[in-house]
Amino acid sequence: MTPDPDSTTPGAGVGAGSASAHEPGEGSTSGEQSRSESGQEAPPARSSPRDSSSSDSGEGFDLSMDLVGRCLPEYEIVRVVGAGSMGVVFEAVHRPLQRRVALKVLPPGLAVRERMIHRFLREAEVVARIHHENIVPIYDVGSRSGLHYLAMRLVPGVSLDRVVSVAPLAPAEVAKIGSQVARALACAHSQGIVHRDVKPANLLREPDGRVALTDFGLARAEGNGTMTESGAAVGTPNYMSPEQVIGTRESVDGRSDIYSLGATLFELLAGRPPFREATTTATLRAILEKSLPRLRRLRPDAPQELEVILEKAMRKDPAARYANAAAMADDLDRYLRGEPILARPEPWIHRTGRYVKARKGVFIAGGVAVVLAWGAWAALQRAWHVDRIAALDRAKVEIESMDPADSATVDRVLATLAPAFDDPDTRTRACIQRSELAKRTRREQHLRLAMNDTNELLTADPRNIEALVLRSEIAYRLGDMSVSRQCAYDALRIDGEDPRTLTQAARLCIRAGEDLSAEGHGDDAVREWTTADDFLKKAIANATTEETSCEAHLERATTLHALKRDGEAQAEFETAKKLGRQNRLKADVFARYSKFKQETDPEKSERAGAAESEIAKALDPFLANVADAFTPQKDKTQSLWKGLGESFRGILGTSRPASQPTNPAF
Questions:
Q1: Cα separation of 274 and 8, whole Å?
Q2: For residues 599 and 574, which has the higher predicted lDDT (pLDDT)?
Q3: In this structure, which of 23, 217, 402, 484 has its CB flanked by the most CB atoms within 10 Å?
Q4: DSSP conformation letters of 525-573
Q5: Alpha helices in 338-404 (DSSP H)
Q6: pTM of the model
Q7: Domain made up of 161-357: CATH architecture
Q8: What is the Cα 84 distance to its own chain's centre?
Q9: Domain boundaries, the chain
């Protein structure tokens, strides 16, 4: 695609209105104004060969100040400001209002072309719909004696293309300019107007720092056709968006102006346009295919925030840019206030995709090989992962049903869990299961190992409630009450409704109450037990599993017994017994209930104890005889029936002879 021949180009000077106003001595927008800057009147504007050849009459035109003054008597012509492909701009005074204006006149050679007249008058129509302090307003429009003219505000300023030709601007100044222009574009877009030619030459900087956006000659209303119905690219090549280069009218909307503004700000910072090639065709191809140059390579002192803002504004895909000009202005204002910007750098995968696309022939074979290798590796990893998940499931079942005194089973479970620690996806679950194993065995070495596991879990995620509760329970069993209490309270702060957290907090309160009671502080002990009761009632209400509910009921029975509310404690024990029949808490429930009965009815407990002792004595010979019956597998069966005998004794509440070790589970 090539640019529309009627569109403005860099250095062309006054386009459809870019030189709308300049005070004497402030500079101008084209080389034709150099004499006026020195205090001399610029020569009369004459048509260029292209202008004269393109007119229907084939004749040149002479727009002298006298001619314009005679045709437009209500304006006093002061001087020629500049001339371009779309007209001549004079500084004039509107006699009825005595107001200094910039008077833009369409030369007769162009006026005879209906298309040019339409474009000239369209600028007036478009600007009249927009009211913003950073957009040059139009005061009057008309045609007289064959001359079409526009009268607009006289801007005492200089165009930014002349400013940046001397030296790049400071980052803060560029951000202020960008914010003003973005706000002006947002106003235009809200009226359905797309500028389509944002560039430094169309931005005038006034002495007070305000920037005015000019030249709406190429603007169009969104959803309408353009003046270039052939599909030719419209705009200035160095600042055109990819959708402008392609020339699809439907895809050019306000986001195209955001791209052009980004390219303009890039040039103000770097001193050169983002894409600058030897020919126009090469420039347009670079806009479509090449990645945006890194601003900080061209301007090392440029802030990273500005680089990110411009990179987002100039992305190839309009959907990846700022949604609207106001959003870009907001980000620039955040940068100026020293606040974090919302824009984020383009994902590396997008940049890599463009790089590969440009060299796709080289990457096809290698890419296929990499994909196949990656697929095989992923399948292997998946198989290992599935095996580890299955091993964790087996370990969980064994932990729940194991005899804590069986060292062989404990070692087998630890060996099953070991491979899961090498997989990041299963490491957390392995840590939790090893902690559960430590709770069952109550061996100090396992508890210490579990403390390290929970430390690792909490380092990765300090808000991991399950890890906090486990750490609190393990520290409780190790006797470290301060760590246990801190972890429980941290878990409560994160989620005060979690039943396991509430139950563990209650245990700590029960333990604190027991210590206070032993020291003679009865009132303080009652307060701790009352707090524990509140926690446990809430835990029971929130429990979602039988095991969690059983644990809460069991702890509440202990709490109520401590508060001397034995009737309620009896009811809680009964509930816990029903819930504990099918889970690992069964032995603990009956052990605590037996202790409770001994304390609440000593005489009955003594009689029951004597009877239970007799039963236990009778069971011992029976179990011994059964074990001897299996001589070929004597060692195995003796261990089996010995464990069964221990379970009977635990249920009956009797103790072993002093020569036998105590079972930690009871």
A1: 18
A2: 574
A3: 217
A4: HHHHHHHHHHHHHHHHHH--SHHHHHHHHHHHHHHHHHTT-HHHHHHHH
A5: 348-358, 360-401
A6: 0.48
A7: Orthogonal Bundle (1.10)
A8: 47
A9: 31-158, 161-357, 359-458, 612-652
Helices (H), 402-443: 407-417, 424-441
Comparison of pLDDT for 224 and 358, the residue scoring more: 358
Q: Are 532 and 514 in contact (CB under 8 A)?
A: no
DSSP state of 421: G
Cα dist from 553 to 295, 528, 543, 545, 571, whole Å: 67, 17, 10, 12, 9
Q: Is the distance from CB of 110 to CB of 82 less than 8 angstroms? A: no
> 199: left (phi > 0), else alpha (psi -120 to 50), else beta?
beta
- Residues 179-208 have a mean pLDDT of 94
pLDDT digits (tens, 9 = 90+) for 547-582: 888 888 988 998 998 898 988 989 998 888 888 766
Average pLDDT value for the chain: 77
Identical fold, 31-158 and 161-357: no
Report which residue type is found at 357: K
Q: Could you give the CA distance from residue 504 to residue 342 in angstroms, rounded to a whole number?
A: 43
Could you tell me how far CA 565 lies from the centroid of its own chain?
55
Distance CA 337, CA 335 (A): 5
Answer for the pair 489, 505: CB distance below 8 angstroms, yes or no: yes
d(CA 161, CA 53): 29
CATH domain 31-158 topology: Phosphorylase Kinase; domain 1 (3.30.200)
Mean pLDDT, to the nearest integer, of 73-101? Answer: 87
